[in-house]
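Q: Hi! First time doing this. I have a protein sequence and I read that you can turn it into a structure. Is that right? Here it is:
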Amino acid sequence: MKRSAAKIVREYGPFPGADSVGGVTFDGQNVWFAAGDTLKAFDPASGKTLRSIDVAAHAGTAFDGEHLFQIAEDRIQKIDPKTGRVLATIPAPGGGGDSGLTWAEGTLWVGQYRDRKIHQVDPQTGAILRTIESNRFVTGVTWIDGELWHGTWEGDESDLRRVDPRTGEVLERLEMPPGVGVSGLETDGGDQFFCGGGKSGKVRAVRRPKRGSATVKSLPIASFGCLVLLANLMASSAHAQSTKAPQAYSVTEVTSMFGPSMTLKVDRDGDRAVVDETVPAHSAGSTGIHTRSYYNLKNRRSFSVDLDFATANCSTGTIDDNWFDPYEISATLMGDFANARQVGTETVNGFATKVLESGVAGPGYKKVWLDTASGLIVKAQAGAEMIFEVKRVSLAKPPASLFAVPAACIAAPPPAS
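A: Yes, that's right. Below is the predicted 3D structure, encoded as structure tokens:
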């Protein structure tokens, strides 16, 4: 079993009118949490409370892509987030002893605190479909990329655990600082967990360990968010780029799609690439993040190291064609631009760009700045927020020493198939 300290990257709250935080979920834009007699939503970028629904909300919270689900004593409520109306209820499997709640595989997954169990439940009837045993009290529950995680909280000790969904065996532990508990758990779909903090009245963002895979799904969350958001802008190839992408370069960019702003530096020389990800500490008690991923594009293997640990822990993985190459991503995105309108030209950080936009003023408004020489997207805007900006590009070959994989990674076991 792998053990490491949990890395708190940001704290939210306490929130007005909320004495405690129970369950937590994420709807792709906002974080929702159970606050006793209300369900509240806040923006993870600003921390500002946006919504409050008057409904019993005592424990776990989940989102299925359309509806919220909320544990209220001995029942689970299905809620329309637009109106706040309770549409249906089913019995909770623990009869009032339930804790965490999440949605996966078309079903609900419910934690039972003192019984130390996780149940997969039919969302229509409440029937228990399967049960996983734990050896600790279970609080929040979440799934991400095929991994089942749950929170624990006993006394002054609390952690996040990745468990084998077949056997319940603990595969990995992220230990919270003493006195910091986890009442609810959810992921943002990428590299962060949102953790309810119980009577502290706070929600904490905790770094999810890297797996080393560089599929689109496992890109750094801000970059993945940009990719998804921009790919939905238009629908064919009026502005497709045909410039041949360079094979040696260094690109530095800043992005802030969901919460903390991060800096990414991508270096490539032929079949070798390195991506550095840096997130500064954003609040008292939080820590920053500095990770480095090494990609061998020839043998499709990757290594990722958390540089904040004195003894680097190396994770390994395999990669597909969607590793984080800014030129490939730009080419893919621009191949989908059909209805964008060019509204001018502008020099951005030394790049001569043409400016394309879609939509009208408001949340649906999108805008990108495209480098006319290379076809690289150098800046992107969604609504009123700047979500992505390339700060520097060099086409000089990076030094060979930059691509030297640490000995600890070379000795690491190969990724599981």
